[in-house]
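The pair is quoted verbatim as follows:
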Amino acid sequence: MLNFAERITRPFSDDYPVRNLTDIDFYKFTMGQFIHKYYPDINVRFSLINREKHIPLAKIINEAELRASLDYVRNLSFRRTDLYYLRGMDVYGQNMFSNEYLSFLQNLKLPEYELSSDGEQYELSFFGKWAEVTMWETIAMAIITELYYRSLMRRLPKIELENMYGLAKDKLYRKLLSIKEHQGIKFADFGQRRRHSFLWQKYAINMASEVLGSQFTGTSNTYMAFGADLIPIGTNAHELPMVITALKMAENSDKSNILSAQYIMLEKWEQMYGKGLRVILPDTYGSKQFFANMDNKTAQRIANDWHGIRHDSGSPIEECGNFISWLKGMNIDAKKAGKLCIFSDGLDVKTDASSINGTDIISLYNKFKDDINVAFGWGTNFTNDFRNCLSIEDEIIPEINLKWKDVFKGFSLVCKVSGVEADGNILPVVKLSNNINKATGPSDEVEKYIDIFGDGGRITQKVTV
């Protein structure tokens, strides 16, 4: 059995946080092909955002180590084995990835990065062709988070590390046993981007497979799906409507054309992938406006032909309930029609012996199991829950003057598309979200978007991971 404590204190020379270009969320490939086909000449910028400013990343992560890990990934290429795997991908339809896109991947080198710090926080960004830069998102986050925890753990005695990992294993096992008591619960691992480490994610996936069998449906991590003979899970994310809408804004389009961008993206998605990947992410500019602003033809197509929605912000109970009600208004019984709601925002599992850091999977399942098919994309609290696993949680770390319990936890780190090039200028890109605290973009631009999309249904909610 892998000795995690030993691997921290005596890492192998090739123990980089990300060591293969398929160690990435699968939707980066599905979206990447979409971008490569429809928007091959668009340049974008992605930027790192630490939503928890009290965590001083630049004080904890050594800059030289961070640069070395980023540079290592920049020197990677897709192996023949990686490309063979993607070429044969038929989970969502035969020949899912075209020869043209696979040729693009074969020659891909990740674009350069820009890194600086103010002593407390790092500023990390990537600029270049959209189809290339998009690949950095979850890779960069996985690098940052693993280096962060490595740096903190170097301060701990080996016996403390061994005890910590023992408690974390027990906690994860108890959560999985709680899920096993409810045979209808199905979940996939969505934890690559904010994982504790590459090795810990691999351990968690193996444990879930062994404990839950078919209740564990796969992982968003393409590399680990291949290694564990699991299904790679993923469709699309907010960046597609964000960039497409920003391009409409740059054209000085009228309000109706700007509103239509979110539906144009779905139409193109259907053309590329057919039935397999028809899951809507409606909250980019607020779910309420998404369903209210579509024309009748679009509404009929989505209601009848799309599988369902993924919930990523706002109240999960209200958002899923609203979707069921919308379907009812379209004369569709969600359960009978086999419609689906995938919950993916800040999930966790309540056990008799543990506190919870997010929304309880089991409670959501019991709430909606009779009304709609439900599934779960369980992220940070699956691959990175070490809360209450240290004996020194209330001790202060001298270098940063913070308690261990305040820093040795999952935290809200994102890497979002922040700008798009149009007519030689870099224009800001905006997300409104159902949760006001998840909005991204300059405040004046956010207000412009609110004028167009409205503010209905948006709430202020603590961001959990």
Summary: The chain has two domains: 4-158+391-441, 160-383. The CA atoms of residues 66 and 144 lie 7 Å apart. The two ends are 29 Å apart (CA to CA).
